[in-house]
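Protocol step 6 of 9: fold each sequence in the batch and record its C-alpha cells directly after the sequence line. For illustration, a two-sequence batch is reproduced in full.

Sequence one:
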Amino acid sequence: MRKNPWWMLCVFSLFVIAACDDPVVTKDPCGDGFLDPGEQCDGDDLNGESCESLGYYIVTGQLACSATCQFDTSACGHRCGDGLLDVQEDCDDGNDYDDDGCSTRCRVEEGWTCTEDSPSLCEEICGDQMIVGDEECEYGLLNGATCESLGFSPGELDCTRGCTYNTAGCGDPVALVADHEAVAAFDGVDQADYAAVVERLNIYYGHTSHGGQLVTGLRMLDPLFDSGALRLTEEYGDLGHEGDLTWAGLTEAHLDGHPGTNVVIWSWCGGVSDNTPVGIQAYLDEMERLEGQYPDVTFVYMTGHLDGSGEDGQLRTNNRQIRDFCVAYGKVLFDFEDIESWDPAGNYYPDETDACGWCANWCGENTCGTCEDCAHSHCFNCEIKGRAFWWLLSRIAGS
C-alpha cells in the first residue's frame, strides 16, 4: 500500500485543530446592546427600570443609559432622599433613613415636625407623650430610668419641659469605684457585658510602666474576653508630678481629633508619692474642667500605686484625697492602691509595696495565671488589675 507523504498528515492535523476552536474576538461589552455583569443598562435596554421604579417623580423626562452603561437619571424628576422638597413629599431631609423625623417615603414620622426647607429640618415634638429621637423623657414617662440608673442615690426623678431628665429630686451622685471588691465582682461579668464594652466604648488610655499593668492584666484574661477586640488607644505618658498638666493637653488634642472617643483614663507612675495636697487638687480640678468641656466623655480618675510608706504615709494621704473627692462628687475611680492592698481572702496589707509581696505567697498556695512581664510587680497583681478593669468597663458600658 502506498503511504501518504508526511506533510499531508501535518496539513490534515492543522485542519482538524482549526475546525475544533472558534476564533476569539475581543470587544468592549458596553454598547453592544446586551446586559453584561456590572452593567445597569446597555443602549436602549434599561433592564426593565424606569424613573418611577427607581423612586423618582417624572417631571422633565425619562430614564436613559450613559456611555458607561450606568443609569442616567438627569432627566428624572425629584427623588425621596435627594434633599429637594417636591410637591409629592411631606418632607425630604436628604437621606433614606427612618426614625429621624422624615421616613424613607418622605413622610413626616409620628412624634416629629419637619420644616418645608430643602432639605427639611426635623425635630421631636416635646410634650406629645411620645419619646422619639434624642428625647430622654416626656411628662410622666421616664423611659424606664430611675435616679439609681442615672448614677444617683434614691430619690424622685422627673422630666423637664424640654424632655430631659430632672435629677434635682434625686440624692447625691453615686461614685463608680473599681477597688478590690471589683476584683471579686469580675466573676459576674458575662459575654453580654463584654459585647457591650466592645460595641459601645472607645477608650483613650495614657500610661507608662505602672499603668501598663492594667493592659497586661487584660491580656492575661484573653481566654475569657478577647482584649484585642477593644477599641483602646494607648498614649505614652502619665499624670506626672505636682503641677504637671501635660496629660490634659494631650487629652484635648486626642478628643478634638477623635470625636468618637468616649472614655478617657490616665494613670500615675510614682507621681502621688511625692505630691502635695495642692498638687493633687490641681489634678482633680483639671479633670473636672475636662468633664465640663467634654460632657459626653467618661473620665476615669485613678489613685497611685503602693510605695511601702504605710497607712499614714504621704501616698495613702494623697490617695485618700482623690478617693474622698470621687465619692463626694460621684466620679468614676480606678482605685489602684486599694486593689493591690487586699488579697482575695480579704487580708489587708497596709505596708505593702508595688512589688506585691503577698501575691507570691498567694500564688504559692493557689492557682494563678502567668504573663511574660508585669511591670515592677508580680503577674497576679496585673491579673487582678485586669479583672477590676473589665468590671469597670462593663459598668461604664451600662450593660
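Sequence two, same batch, same settings:
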Amino acid sequence: MLTDREIISTLEMLENENLDVRTVTLGINLFDCAGSSLNRVKEKIYSKIAHLAQNLVPECDRIGQKYGIPVVNKRIAVSPIAVVGASLSSSQQVEISKALNAVAQEVNVDFIGGFSSLVQKGIARGDRALIEAIPHALAATERVCASVNVATTRAGINMDAVLLMGQIIKKAAGLTADKDGIGCAKLCVFANIPQDIPFMAGAYLGIGEADAVINLGVSGPGVVKKAIDRALEANPDMDLGQISELIKKTAYKVTRVGELIGREVADNLKIPFGVVDLSLAPTPNVGDSVGEIFQSLGLLSIGVPGTTAALALLNDAVKKGGAFASSRVGGLCGAFIPVSEDLNISEAARKGYIGLDKLEAITSVCSVGLDMVAIPGDTSAECISAIIADEMAIGVINNKTTATRLIPVPGKAAGESAFFGGLLGQSTIIPVNNGQGENHFIRHGGLIPAPIQSLTN
C-alpha cells in the first residue's frame, strides 16, 4: 500500500519529473495473411492492421488526457514478415514494407516493427529474401523498423548471418547517406530477442502470442534521478543498499501508473493486455536522461570507472520494483543506453568519457547493448560484423538479450557529429579500433556452438 506521502510524490512525478508512458504497442498476428500472391498479401495485411489499429491513437490520447499522463509513442508490432512473406522474393518484401508504412501512416502510429527474421540456426529462403530487402525497405519507408535475431543461448551464434548483417548495415547506411545513415537507426541485430518487446526498433509479435495484444513500455529516468537527488539532499550518508531500495520503490510506482494506462487502453479496444516492459528509456529532452542518473549516484559521467557497478545496481532495482508492481512483466526490462537518444550520454561520448569498449562492457548488465552508436562511415562491413559478434557472444554466454544498432555514418569520421532528428537525437561519432582492417575470423562463418549452460533440460 502507498502512504499519503508516496501518493503525493507520484503526483509530483506527473507535474515536474517527465513521467510518461513511453509507448503503447499493439501487437498484431499476420500469419493468416500469408500467401504467394503479392497483391493479395498486401491487401490482407493492410486490411487487418487498419481494422485493429484504427482506434489505437485516439484511445491512447484520450486516456492520457484523462489521467494527465501522456502516452508519448503509439506503435504497432507484427509477426515476422520473413515468415508471413516466406514465398515472396526480396523485391516483393520491399513492397510489403511499403504497405506496412502506408497503413502505419493511415492509423497515425509513430513506428511499425516486425520487418524481422529469426536466423539463429540457419537462414531459410524467406529469411534471406527479407534480410536482403532490409536496406531498400528502410530507405523507402519512414515508419518501418527491422530486426534480425542471429543468436540464442540455446542455438549459439549463426556467424553466416552475422557476416551478412555487417554487409546489410553498410548498404542501409549508403542508401540513406543524405540523412547520416538513418536507415541503420531502424535496424536492430539481436541475441535472445524476446517475443513481446514494445520498444522500437526491435519490436515484433512472436509466434506464441495472441491474435492481437497490447504491450506497454513504461519509462521514467527523470523520475528516478529526482528521487535519488531528493533522498541524498535529505540524507547525504545514504549507502548504496538504501539507494537501491529507493529506486525499487520508485520503479514500483512508475510501473503501477503505466499498467493502469495500458490495461484501460486494452479494455477499451477489447484487446488482451500483454506485458509491461520496465525499461528506463531516455529521450533527447533535458531532464529525461539515464546518463544523468549516474551523476546523481556520484560519478563524474557515465563511462568513468564505477559505471558498470552503478548500472548493475540500477538495472536490478528497477526490475525488482517493477516485478513487485506487476505480474505481467516482459520485453527487455532495465536501463537503455542509446547514445544518440540521451543528451547526457551523447555529451559523454563527445568528451571521451565513454567509447565503444566501455559501451560493450556495460552490455553485460544493461538491457540492450550497443544502442544508437554512430561509427565512422569507412568502417568495413567485416568490422561491423565483428562488433556484432562480440555483442552476441555476451548475450549467448550470459543468457540475456543483447543487441546492436550501429550506424556507420557515410562520409563522416570519428569526432564529427551525426544528426538523426526527433527521438533518435544526435551523437558524436565514436572511433573504432582497426575499423578498416581485415578480419579473417569473421570470414570463417559457420555456427559458434551453444555454451554448455544451454543444456538445462
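Proceed to step 7 once all outputs are recorded. Observation for sequence two: The mean pLDDT is 89.
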